[in-house]
Amino acid sequence: MPYDQIFIGGATAILCLVGLWNEAWILAHTTKGRRLIGWFGEQRGLWVLRVVLSLGFLFGALLASGIINPVRWDTSRHGPVQEPSSVASDFMNSRSIAVA
User: Fold this and answer.
1) How many CB atoms lie within 10 A of CB 88?
2) Alpha carbon distance 83, 48 (integer Å)
3) I need a labelling partner for 14 at 20 to 30 A (CA). Which of 36, 51, 55, 87 fits?
């Protein structure tokens, strides 16, 4: 399993746990927390934050353990990956613009 997948999943899970630990502070001192309270009220906003952070923890743990895998594009069928600037220039060169 790739180390970057383990790192990203572990970091996501840890950050969500820290968010769950500091849920009252997040609701009181961040713009997003105050917005959640404005939309859902204080009790429901707290539960919405808990659900979102719990799902983030679950996703991170599943990613780090290899149960969920990131999308890996198969480039063998399509050839090598081009740089974005060359793709744009190829597109512009293939277009014929008629000037009247």
Assistant:
1) 11
2) 41
3) 36
